[in-house]
Write a structure and sequence with these properties.
This protein is of the alpha+beta class. It has two domains: 33-229, Peroxisomal Thiolase, Chain A, domain 1 (3-Layer(aba) Sandwich), CATH 3.40.47; 246-390, Thiolase/Chalcone synthase (Peroxisomal Thiolase, Chain A, domain 1), CATH 3.40.47.10. Helix content is 34%, strand content 24%. It has helices spanning 40-51, 56-63, 86-112, 135-143, 162-176, 206-217, 282-299, 318-328, 336-345, 352-363; strands at residues 4-6, 9-10, 25-33, 37-39, 69-71, 121-126, 150-155, 180-187, 220-229, 248-257, 265-270, 273-278, 310-313, 371-378, 382-390. The strands form four sheets. Strands 7-6-8-9-3-10-15-14-13 form a nine-stranded mixed sheet, with helices on both faces. A two-stranded antiparallel ribbon has the order 1-2. It is globular and about 60 Å long. The two termini are 18 Å apart.
């Protein structure tokens, strides 16, 4: 993809992905798989109310999260992992993630009309579990991918990782004229943390509050997309591009990282799973950068915000969506797919923006040529945005 070091400024020598005659990558299949549903109020009443000794601050965080349902391989009202070591949690990750990922990838391949054996690159994104051999190897074997399939694992980038992953698989598709699969799979329910003494008191610390927010927001999901070369007169070397290709063309991917704020969002490996640090200052930092990032992305292609037909904004939380809406001058309807995913799924880390894109394609009428912008945010603090085009 094109590298943008400043809004609207291309790196010397990088080609324009929209230039006539250049190969294109198209998201032509998308699907997701989720574990058992858990109601937000039942999670509070059945576990977290006692976990936080009915702390009124925690209760308010849960009431205002904008979430009705979430999904988890571990339901804490049934099984409490807060005292379980990280090694056991990683073993559980492999056991739970493998069938969940297989369901998502199989459904995405079926929608795209691509056989598993024809996949040239399989990329797996996760920040919630690790193993070697990893999901890339285990799922490639179980799904019947070719032994020569190339594999890529993107780990510990956090909530925005789907978009650099999409850029990487799209580059492969353009260069090799073969289909690729991107799977984002996050099992945040494995990482419930034990309560501190102060979190159960009348004066919880800022770190306690950050854990309360994380426990109120995060959820499990596997989301997969199949990216194919667009149809050309020649077709791909394996014939997969000869048929008409419909979906969302990947036009450009850009990023902005503000390392001066790197301490505001963290994801630390501890002896008791992974622990989130999530400062309430995060929305303010995103507010400083989101408009410049989007203006630069669109301006490089002769577009403005009013030209965008669909928005897929990562619902990191309700306030994140409100900031994006305010800074970009959008009405609330423009972010309806994001609010719907937040309400029905919560924050599923890297998988979430793919869920929003899937929701957008199902509910918003897109005409050929309509621009779509996808955005996600995470540690760094980092903002990623992708420009897509309906085809």
């Amino acid at each position: 993809m094109v590298t943008v070091t400043e809004p609207g400024r291309r790196t010397a020598g990088s080609p324009d992905p929209a230039a006539p005659g250049r190969g294109r990558a198209v998201v032509s299949g998308a699907a997701h798989a989720v574990p058992a549903v858990m109601r937000q109020d039942a999670l509070w009443d059945g576990y977290f109310a006692e976990h936080y000794a009915n702390n009124p601050l925690a209760a308010r965080v849960w009431r205002t999260a904008g979430i009705e349902r979430r999904h988890g391989v571990v339901d804490p009202t049934v099984e409490d992992l807060s005292g379980v070591g990280t090694g056991a949690r990683m073993e559980r990750f492999v056991a739970e993630a493998t069938p969940l990922g297989a369901r998502a990838v199989s459904a995405a391949l079926a929608e795209a009309g691509v056989a598993a054996a024809d996949v040239g690159l399989f990329a797996v994104v996760s920040c919630t579990g690790y193993a070697t051999p990893g999901l890339d190897i285990l799922l490639a074997r179980d799904l019947g991918m070719d032994p020569g399939v190339q594999r890529l694992v993107i780990g510990h980038m956090g909530c925005y990782a789907a978009l650099p992953g999409l850029g990487a698989v799209s580059d492969f598709v353009v260069a090799h004229r073969r289909p690729a699969v991107l799977l984002c799979l996050e099992l945040t329910s494995l990482h419930v943390q034990p309560p501190s003494e102060t979190s159960r008191s009348a004066t919880p610390t800022p770190a306690d509050l950050q854990q309360m927010v994380a426990h109120a927001l995060f959820s499990d999901a596997a989301a997969a997309v199949v990216v194919r070369p667009a149809a050309t007169s020649e077709g791909g070397h394996d014939g997969t591009a000869a048929a008409p290709t419909s979906g969302l063309e990947v036009v450009d991917v850009v990023a902005c990282t503000d390392p001066s704020t790197s301490d505001l969002m963290t994801w630390d490996v501890t002896d008791l799973g992974f622990r989130m640090g999530l400062s309430p200052k995060v929305p303010d930092v995103l507010s400083q950068h989101v408009l410049g990032l989007v203006d630069g992305l669109l301006g490089a292609h002769g577009l403005g915000i009013d030209d965008v037909a669909g928005w897929a904004v990562h619902p990191g939380g309700r306030r994140i969506l409100e900031v994006a809406q305010e800074r970009l001058g959008l009405d609330v309807a423009a972010l309806a797919p994001s609010y719907e995913v937040l309400r029905e799924h919560g924050n599923c880390s890297s998988a979430t923006v793919l869920l929003v894109l899937e929701q957008l394609r199902q509910t918003e009428p897109l005409a050929p040529g309509d621009p779509v912008v996808a955005m996600a945010f995470g540690p760094g603090l980092t903002l990623y945005a992708a420009l897509l085009r309906a085809v």
